[in-house]
Each structure stands twice: as structure tokens, then as C-alpha cells.
Write a structure and sequence with these properties.
- With about 525 residues, the chain is α/β, with parallel strands linked by helices.
- It folds into 2 domains: about 300 residues, FAD/NAD(P)-binding domain (3-Layer(bba) Sandwich); about 160 residues, FAD/NAD(P)-binding domain, CATH 3.50.50.
- Helices cover about 30% and strands about 15% of the residues.
- Strands 1, 2, 3, 4, 5, 6, 17 and 18 form an 8-stranded mixed beta sheet that branches. The protein has a 5-stranded parallel beta sheet with strand order 7-16-8-9-12, with helices on one face.
- Helix 2 links the parallel strand 1 and strand 2.
- The longest helix has 19 residues.
- It is globular.
- It binds NADP nicotinamide-adenine-dinucleotide phosphate.
- NADP nicotinamide-adenine-dinucleotide phosphate binds next to loops.
- NADP nicotinamide-adenine-dinucleotide phosphate (NAP) binds next to loops.
């Protein structure tokens, strides 16, 4: 439980503290950038984007580990309104994705709205005026009608709770905070974790290090990555015949979308993928003992399915040991496993993931009556359409609860949520509307439906422990359907789902005509 402190920060008397923006956006990952771009494109200029780092890019700025690349095809993992013809590979590397984000920032003219080195420390809603106050650790306070949080699910790296972690004398860092000043050449290096980050790191550093000791708690299901360079001629075709590029994106989209049938609708279909993944292990791994260690005992899809062509070959290398005995503790010179053996290493890399499912917002958010979001979310985060939370008016979350995907590009979900949020912000720009607050009964009904659907999904029936679920086994992270369903449900912000409070204090909703014009303006404005 987070301590109840009702104090607001000292208000900075700068001009920022006097000005009331239409929106303050938090974060410059794909979510924050998309919101900024869509506001700008629809003629709304009164917004700032606060970024804690000193550059844009969110998770794609932070995750610079060797081998970092996307596991969704780049022609789909990019904005629908900003296609790029010359992706170098089918699955773009981190640097190219970050460059794309920077290019979009400049192309759509939103860089001047971005305030870097501005880490938000809290946001408070003033019900009397319908205004949010957002303060940064650097001491500036912003005021806005709406807050759009784009802080993402993968922005808080987690170091494992292993005894002795602080006693280790060598180099140690998390995969999302790679220490590039540390030279791993010829060193004995431990990698803890075998998730999406580790399977990219291991094959990239294995040829460089002296020895690599990989500590696996649970094996991941891995399938081949259909990756390759994209030939110059294909890039040329995409550039000069845009409909072909569009068709290519659509083909990827529908191929990925089929996965929903197995993830969320009938997990028995996963058996087909499982057979394929098992034969991939057999084909790729020489030793039978190693094959067994690498074969998961839960249904494929329960944890994120990983794509790699070079992870298994790396594990066949002489200088790589897969250690599955379980970690007892970390000592001053290495990692001690439960069989009593101490593995001495020069460095430990924690590829141990992020804090995603637990009910924490990265900073204090207080809504109506000073209610703290962390308290409301104590038993698991939930929102309406992953975007709005009852009691927290004019607050919109992009990549909020239950908007994650196991099968396709998150940018599809981000664009849908931004379309929805844009309508909310447009309503708030109407002079007589003070705030809009999603109705609790609507939010509850929605979440009952989502949880019922999730209960049949592989994420809850597949027999694994994953970060998708809270410690009490509730899935607060994933969307249990097709992305086109989510898009349809977020296309209109329906006024009847909200309490509309006007400046004169009356609660009167706009009519149905307004709903259509808002959506059309948001789409084409
Ligand atoms: P992750 O998938 O959560 O994997 C963390 C790994 O650390 C797991 O193998 C976990 O084991 C292990 N671990 C955690 N605590 C441990 C402990 N105390 N002792 C031993 N092992 C421990 O994290 P990630 O690999 O950073 O990936 C997180 C997410 O980031 C992915 O699911 C994906 O959405 C995203 N990502 C995407 C890409 C991309 O290509 N787009 C690349 C990297 C990451 P258990 O399985 O037993 O918990």
C-alpha cells in the first residue's frame, strides 16, 4: 500500500505554472509520440510532451543491449500514417527503429513540444477547475485539461530479489541499462534470464566472451525468426509503388492476426505450434540432455513465444553453459546454485524483465477526492478500453491495462487508443465542458467481460507463471481478441459511457451527433 500523502509539490512560479495546456503527454515512446503527432495533425498545438530521459524513444532508447531488435515485422511495427519503404530487414534492429522515431518526431514537427530531462513526479486532478497539475522532479509544474500517460509497460527494469545481489564485486547491469563502457571481450559472464531480451543478447555476445554462463529458471518456447535483409530492389518497389508496400503490411497484419485463434479463442490449437517448436529444438540442439533442459513444460504461448535463429546454435557452443540448477544466492565473486556450486564470473547481466503487471503507476496520480491510482489498482490495474479509469477524469492511458499483445504490433493498439483519446481531448476543448469521467458501471462491465474471455486464453490455462499476470493470477496486461475488434471499440468515444461535467456544474452529455463528428474529426481532422 502506498502511503497517503495529500501534499502537492511547491508550485513553480514559472510561466509554465500559469499556462493551461490542452494536454500534457508523458513519455516519448511510440505512445507519446503518436499522441503528439495526432494532436498536431488535427490542429491542436497546445500540448507538451514530458520525457524523463535526455532523448526520445522510450524502450527503444533504453534497450541498447547487443543484438537488440524487434520481434515484430517492421513494416507493421511502424505508424500506419508514416510508412517507411527502406527498412533494412524484415525485423528492424533497435538503432533503425530509434532513428525512425526521431524521423517521425521531425517530420510531424513535434520536437519543439518535447521537454527532455523532465521526469514526472506526480499528477493531481483539481476537481473544482477540471485541471491537472503535473510536477516534475526537476521542479517545474505544468497545468493541463488532459493528461495522456504513455509511460509504457516495459519502462521499469526489474532486478531479481536474489540473496546477496548487492555483494557482487564485479560488473553488473540490467539488459535495459547496458553498460557499454564495460568490455566483455574474453570475460566470464553470467546472464540471468532466458526471455525475449536474453535470447537476443546471448548469441550476440557468445562469440566475444571467454565463457558465458546462462542461468535459466524456465525455458521459453522458441520458433524460427523469418528474418532477412530486404533487397534494394524491394525497397525501390515499396518506394515507387506504395500500394504494394500497403499490401505487404496488410499481409503481415492478417498472418499475425490468425494467432489470436490459438492464443485467446481455442488454446488447443497451440498444439500445432508446440509440435513445430519441439522439432525446432531437436533439429537445432545437439545434446539430448540440453534438448530436455530447453523443452518447456507449459503450453506454448502461455509466456511470450520467442523468435530466434541464432539462440539455439549459441547454446551448442563450447564456451556457453546452460545452468538450470536454480540460483541460491549471489556471492562477491559469482553465482551460487542450489546444488552448492559457485560459478565464478567477472560480470552479471540481468535479463530479468520489467515490472509490468503489478498495480503500480510510476509516479503518484491522484484523481477525484484525492484518490490515489496505486490504491485503486491495489488488486490489479484495470481501465475502460485500457484507456480511462473511473474517478480519474481527463486522464488517458496509452498502453494501459489489458492492451498488450502476444501476437502482433503494439503500434496497432497505440493508434487505436490515440484515436479514442483524441476525441476525449476534443470534447474537453469545448468551452462548457469541465471534465469527463468514465462511468464505474461501464468500466466494471467491460472488465468482467475481458476477464471472462481471458480465463479461457492460453495465458491463464497454459500452466506457466508469467509477467502477464499479477501474483494473484489475474491478467492485467493482455487484450484477449483481434486488434481489429479493439480498433472498432475505440473508434468512437461514446458520450454515454462517461459522466460529462460542465463548467456550470451540470452533468449533461453531448448528443449522438457529437459522437460521430468527434470521431470523424479525430480521424480526418
Ligand atoms: P522477460 O521476458 O520477463 O524475461 C525475464 C527472464 O528473467 C525470464 O527468463 C525469467 O524467468 C528470468 N528471471 C526473472 N527473475 C529471475 C530470478 N530471480 N532468477 C532467475 N531467473 C529470473 O523479460 P525480457 O526478456 O526483458 O522481455 C520482456 C518483454 O520485453 C518481452 O516479453 C517483450 O514484450 C519485450 N521485448 C521485446 C523485444 C522485441 O524484440 N520486440 C525484445 C526484448 C524484449 P521465468 O521465466 O522463470 O520468470
Amino acid at each position: 500500500m502506498v502511503a497517503q500523502t495529500l501534499e502537492k509539490p511547491n508550485v513553480n512560479r514559472s510561466s509554465e505554472a500559469q499556462k493551461v495546456y490542452d494536454a500534457v503527454i508523458i513519455g516519448t515512446g511510440f505512445a507519446g509520440l503518436c499522441m503528439g503527432i495526432r494532436l498536431k495533425k488535427s490542429g491542436i498545438d497546445s500540448f507538451v510532451i514530458l520525457e524523463k530521459g535526455n532523448g526520445i524513444g522510450g524502450t527503444w532508447r533504453d534497450n541498447t543491449y547487443p543484438g537488440a531488435a524487434c520481434d515484430v515485422q517492421s513494416h507493421l511495427y511502424s505508424f500506419s500514417f508514416a510508412p517507411k519503404s527502406n527498412w533494412s530487414r524484415l525485423f528492424g534492429p533497435q538503432k533503425e527503429i530509434l532513428q525512425y522515431m526521431n524521423d517521425c518526431t521531425d517530420q510531424f514537427g513535434i520536437r519543439s513540444h518535447i521537454r527532455t530531462n523532465s521526469e514526472v513526479s506526480g499528477a493531481w486532478f483539481d476537481e473544482k477547475d477540471g485541471i491537472w497539475e503535473i510536477s516534475t522532479k526537476e521542479g517545474t509544474t505544468y497545468k493541463a485539461k488532459a493528461v495522456v500517460s504513455g509511460t509504457g509497460g516495459l519502462s521499469r527494469p526489474v532486478l531479481p530479489n536474489i540473496k546477496g545481489i548487492d555483494t557482487f564485486k564485479g560488473a553488473k547491469f540490467h539488459s535495459a541499462k547496458w553498460d557499454h563502457s564495460y568490455d566483455i571481450q574474453g570475460k566470464t559472464v553470467a546472464v540471468i534470464g532466458t526471455g525475449a531480451s536474453a535470447i537476443q543478447i546471448v548469441p550476440t555476445i557468445a562469440p566475444l566472451v571467454g565463457n558465458l554462463k546462462l542461468f535459466q529458471r524456465t525455458p521459453a518456447w522458441i520458433i524460427p525468426k523469418p528474418d532477412s535483409n530486404i533487397a534494394g530492389s524491394v525497397k525501390g518497389i515499396f518506394k515507387f509503388i506504395p500500394p504494394l508496400r500497403w499490401l505487404f503490411r496488410k499481409a503481415i497484419y492478417w498472418l499475425n492476426e490468425i494467432g489470436v485463434l490459438a492464443f485467446a479463442i481455442n488454446p488447443k490449437l497451440m498444439k500445432i505450434f508446440e509440435k513445430f517448436a519441439k522439432s525446432f529444438i531437436k533439429k537445432s540442439i545437439h545434446s539430448e540432455e540440453l534438448q530436455q533442459k530447453l523443452t518447456p513444460n507449459y503450453t506454448i504461448g502461455c509466456k511470450r513465444i520467442l523468435l530466434s535463429n541464432d539462440y539455439y546454435p549459441a547454446l551448442n557452443r563450447e564456451n556457453v553453459d546452460l545452468i538450470t540448477d536454480g540460483i541460491q544466492e549471489i556471492t562477491s565473486s559469482g553465482v551460487k546454485t542450489k546444488d552448492g556450486k559457485e560459478h565464478k564470473v567477472d560480470a552479471i547481466i540481468f535479463a530479468t524483465g520489467f515490472q509490468a503487471a503489478e498495480a503500480v503507476s510510476p509516479f503518484e496520480i491522484r484523481g477525484r477526492d484525492g484518490k490515489l491510482l496505486a490504491d485503486v489498482w491495489e488488486d490489479g490495474a484495470e481501465a475502460y478500453l485500457g484507456t480511462t479509469v473511473s474517478g480519474f477524469p481527463n486522464l488517458f492511458m496509452i498502453v494501459g491495462p489489458n492492451t498488450g499483445l502476444g501476437h502482433s504490433s503494439m503500434i496497432l493498439m497505440i493508434e487505436s487508443q490515440v484515436q479514442y483519446t483524441l476525441q476525449g481531448i476534443r470534447y474537453l476543448r469545448k468551452k462548457n465542458i469541465k471534465f469527463i469521467d468514465v462511468r464505474k458501471d461501464i468500466q466494471d462491465k467491460y472488465n468482467t467481460e475481458i476477464q471472462k474471455r481471458l480465463s479461457k486464453s492460453v495465458w491463464l490455462t497454459g500452466g506457466c507463471v508469467s509477467w502477464y499476470n499479477t501474483s494473484t493470477g489475474r491478467n492485467t496486461t493482455l487484450w484477449p481478441g483481434f486488434t481489429f475488434e479493439f480498433k472498432a471499440r475505440t473508434f468512437f468515444l461514446s458520450p454515454k459511457d462517461y459522466e460529462f461535467v460542465r463548467v456550470d456544474g451540470k452533468a449533461k452529455r453531448p448528443g449522438i451527433g457529437s459522437r460521430f463528428s468527434m470521431a470523424l474529426n479525430a480521424t480526418f481532422g
